[in-house]
Amino acid sequence: MLTSDRIKIMEAAARFGMVDGELAELLGVNVATIQSVGNQIRIKRARVEAGVRVAQTIYAAALAGNVTAAIFWMKARHQWREADAETVAASSVAARPPRVLVIE
């Protein structure tokens, strides 16, 4: 069982992407302790919270005019991809063409 201080450390480390084995080594516990149901719920929540914060930051940057962030957001969240005009024309005959961002 982990103390509340060690749980906070585990959650913070999970936000930075540490996997179960690394978390166990960091805390000096067995991997099974990290993989217990309660800890896995805490770890999953911490990783989701981190992802949300990153998404919010990228989204805010895109809205503020950061073109790189806007392109990344569209590719990651809306399956857009870069293509030339010929690729766009060829994909229009498909039954369900992918969303395409044309950059000239």
Helices, strands, pairings?
Blueprint: H1 4-15, H2 20-27, H3 31-34, H4 37-63, H5 67-78, E1 82-83, H6 85-91, E2 101-102
Parallel strand pairs: 1-2
Helix pairs in contact: 1-2, 1-4, 4-5
Describe this structure in words.
With 104 residues, the chain is mostly helical. It has two domains: 1-64, no CATH class; 66-104, no CATH class. The chain is built from six helices and two strands. Strand 1 (82-83), helix 6 and strand 2 (101-102) form a beta-alpha-beta unit. The mean pLDDT is 87.
Q: Order of strands in the sheet with the most strands?
A: 1-2
Helix/strand structural class: mainly alpha
Percent strand equals under 5%
Distance between the termini: 58 Å
Question: Number of folding domains?
Answer: 2
Radius of gyration: 21 Å
Q: Fraction of residues in helices? A: 55-70%
Number of helices: 6
Biggest pleated sheet: 2 strands, parallel
- Averaged pLDDT, please? 87
Count of β-strands: 2
Sequence stretches where pLDDT stays below 50 over 5 or more residues? none
Keywords for this entry:
two-stranded parallel ribbon, elongated, mainly alpha, single chain, 4% strand, 104 residues, 2 domains
Summarize the model shown.
The chain is mostly helical and 104 residues long. Helices cover 67% and strands 4% of the residues.
